[in-house]
Task: inverse folding
């Protein structure tokens, strides 16, 4: 099983729908599960294709999820970016998410040399995602109480970080 990252294309729409319509996968995401392809195509055209760093998580070149890094645009915050990822639930527990996060941590600091810190905010109830980050060397920094609203409810988040210097360790 080869786990790779590559740009997501419109031709991947059927694979995209397999995780984007997955209620379990979308539980801790800001979006609701997609119901039809036209909304998904619009999202890919308007958000994914212009995103600075959005990749499909692939198993044997077939997209099974997505991972992204969003840079901070404010001058004082350019040293950090935010990691986000989603994986279709039928691929959970197989090491795929861990491998994908590790690939990003190994690449993003080379591709974006101004970046020194990669952050991830994880819902306190999303224990599996917290474990993925811990296995890839992210440091748990603390709980941010009442930090954001997810699907109409105020949530607590755990802040994780990975520094460019962590690669040398």
Result:
């Amino acid at each position: 099983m080869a786990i790779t990252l590559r740009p997501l294309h419109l031709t991947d729409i059927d694979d995209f729908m397999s995780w984007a319509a997955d209620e379990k996968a979308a539980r801790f995401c800001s979006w609701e599960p997609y119901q039809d392809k036209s909304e998904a195509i619009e999202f890919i055209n308007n958000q994914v294709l212009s995103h600075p760093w959005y990749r499909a998580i692939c198993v044997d070149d077939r997209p099974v999820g997505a991972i992204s890094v969003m840079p901070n645009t404010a001058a004082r915050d350019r040293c950090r970016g935010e990691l986000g990822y989603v994986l279709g639930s039928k691929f959970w527990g197989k090491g795929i998410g861990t491998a994908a996060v590790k690939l990003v941590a190994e690449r993003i600091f080379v591709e974006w040399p101004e970046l020194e810190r990669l952050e991830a905010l994880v819902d306190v109830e999303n224990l599996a995602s917290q474990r993925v980050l811990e296995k890839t060397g992210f440091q748990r920094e603390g709980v941010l109480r009442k930090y954001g609203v997810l699907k109409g409810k105020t949530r607590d988040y755990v802040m994780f970080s990975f520094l460019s210097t962590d690669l040398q360790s």
